[in-house]
Structure formats: C-alpha cells, structure tokens
Amino acid sequence: MRGIVQSIKGLLGGAPRKQSQDEFTEAARELHRFKRQPEERKKRIALIREELELPKLSFTHHGFKWRKWRWASITLINMLFVVSFHYDVQLVEGALTASRFVGFHMADLNSALQITLAHKHVVINLVIGAVTVGILWWLVGGRAFCSWACPYHLLSEWAEMAHLWIVGKGWIKGHPLDRRMRTVLYVVFALLALGTGYTVFESISPVGILSRALVYGVGVAMIWVGVLLFIEIFFVRRFWCRYVCPIGMTYGFLGSVAPLVIEYKLEDCLHEGECRQVCLVPHVLEMTKKSRAEDAVLSIGADCTRCGMCIEACPTGALNFKIRGSGGLL
Asked: Distance between CA atoms of 242 and 236, rounded to whole angstroms?
C-alpha cells in the first residue's frame, strides 16, 4: 500500500523522496552494502566503462524495437477511425475522445469526467463507455494510453527529439517547470467545467483536436497544436504531456494499480543512468540511482507510460515488463 501511495504522490507532482535507511528492506540494505564493497565498485566501474565503449543508444536512436511498435500502434489505432469514417466501414465511429466500436460505446475517461461535470448529470452510455475504456487501459498499464494510442504523444515525441538535438548543439536551453502544475490544472479544468457548463479543456486538448482533424479534416484549431509543438521544441521539453495534460494523470491513477508494470531489480543494476536518459518521464526511475532503491525488487510508478524504452536501454536487464503477482517476466 505504501508503494501505491508514493506512486500516486509522484503522479501528482511530488518530488522523489530519498528514503531513510530505516525504510529500506533488509534485502535492499544488504544489496547496497554489497555494492559498496571495494571489489564490487571496481567491477561495476569496469562494466560501465565497457558499456561506454559500445555504440551509444540515445533518445534519438531509431533502433528501439518498442518505439517502432508504439509508433505503429498509435498510427493503427488512429487510422481505424479515419478508414471507418471515409469508407463507411462502421467499425469505429467517432473520434478518440468518444466513439463506438462495433456498436459498443467507448469514452475517454477524462472527457467523460468533463462532460459529467459540465452537464451535471450522469449519462448511462457515457458511463458504459468510460468503464469499458477504463478496464482496457487498466489492463495494459494506465498511461500506456499516452505512449501507445495518443496522436499528440507521437508528435510530441518527435518534438522532443528535435528539442534535444537543438539543445545538444547549444543553440537553446531547456526550461523545466514544476510538475505540480499539472495537478493544479487538473483541478482548474474540472472547476471550469463545473462552473461554466462547458468542457473548456476539450476545446484546447491537442489529443481531441488531432483525432477530430484526422477523421473530419483539419480546422483552425490546428494552429493551437502548432503553438504547443513550437513551445516544446524551443522552450519546454514535453510541455503539454508533463505539465498540463489531465488525460495522462487520469490514466495514471489506473496505472498505480494496473497488472502490467515495469519491474526494477536492484541486484542487476549498474546505476549508470542509461534508462533515465531515454525515459519519457524520468522521475519514475529515481530508484535506479545509486543507494536509492528501498527494496530489492520494485514496480515503476503510476506516471510510467510503459513505453519500454528503459528496458532496451538497460545493459543488464534490471528493468523488464512484469504482470503483478506472476512469477515470470514478459
């Protein structure tokens, strides 16, 4: 239970807290002591140096298998809406925020919340759609929606690659913001819907704008999407996803208790930080820093998008997909 609470605190923007030795399990304390032994330190440093001599996997490296699968998944899911509409297939009707799949109602959880607050009454079909979607994304990890289905996430990932390349050239500097800003805006958008009777967030959400543009055609709202991408390339890395979007937070709550997680094994970790360099939400990998893990085996927190990039970046297999309660890795 404590792990779930800490996971949700991280999702809400809480800074990763360094645990005291009293909070560590005996297994974790023993592993940390073992790794501090001179011979083990030398061995770890030698392994890191050996790794550095290999071709480096950077964020912009295109060899990531999971990234290719994710990009294909985002494209396929969104193209289903496009093909169904333009060819009158009637497989998927609507857009990503609200739709019907072969007759079954589907509704994005945050969109359903916004509509309910705005209209101040519960619509049964909306509840059915939200519950159906909630169960599906709970099964695959909550924020997996972001990295495996969201059309804006794909554009934002490309913008992030451009941002890092420009920063690497020294032409600009990144300007990270306080992650608690997303929690504040989550409440603000909910209160605006409740107070105005209008789904304010839906009118500015690049997720809905892009999904509707793909299906029904590009409108003037795409200018706003362009503005957001400009901000993310030249000023704030992943501005919308990390600091504004309540959709990711909503699915993150599901992710805190989802069966599919990324599991971290302290024993196998070199603490060289390759995983944090490629992670889309690096604060969730705080336990991979030396002497930070409070247990020998830990599940990555609720804000994790299950993108899989840390798994491929890890040279020792310390990170892997896992079904909670199962004995084996995926």
From this structure: 10
Q: Which residue stretches of the chain are H helix? A: 2-11, 26-36, 38-52, 65-86, 109-119, 124-139, 144-148, 151-168, 180-196, 200-204, 206-216, 222-234, 239-243, 246-255, 274-278, 309-313
| 111-124 pLDDT tens trace | 999 999 999 988 89
Q: Are residues 115 and 156 in the same domain?
A: yes
Domain region containing 139: 65-253
pTM summary value: 0.89
For residues 132-160, give the mean pLDDT: 95
Q: Region of 102 please: left (phi>0), alpha (psi -120 to 50) or beta.
A: left
**What's at 86, amino acid-wise?**
H
Residue 42 burial (C-beta neighbours within 10 Å; 0-12, 13-18, 19+): exposed
Query: Do 297 and 287 touch, CB atoms closer than 8 A?
Result: no
CA distance 9 to 132: 26
| pLDDT at residue 61, as a whole number | 45
Same-domain pairing of 98 and 170: yes
Q: Do 240 and 95 have their domain in common?
A: yes
Q: What is the mean pLDDT of residues 71-90?
A: 91
What pLDDT score was predicted for residue 3?
74
Choose among 320, 294, 292: nearest CA to 306.
Answer: 320
98 and 209 fall within a common domain: yes
Output b/e per residue, 10-30; b: 16+ Cβ within 10 A: bbbbeebeebeeeebeeebee
Is the pLDDT score of 60 beyond 50? no
In the beta sheet, which residues pair with residue 322? 261, 329
The 10s digit of each residue's pLDDT in 268-326 is 998 888 899 889 899 999 999 988 899 999 999 999 999 999 998 888 889 999 998 77
Among 186, 221, 253, where does a domain finish? 253
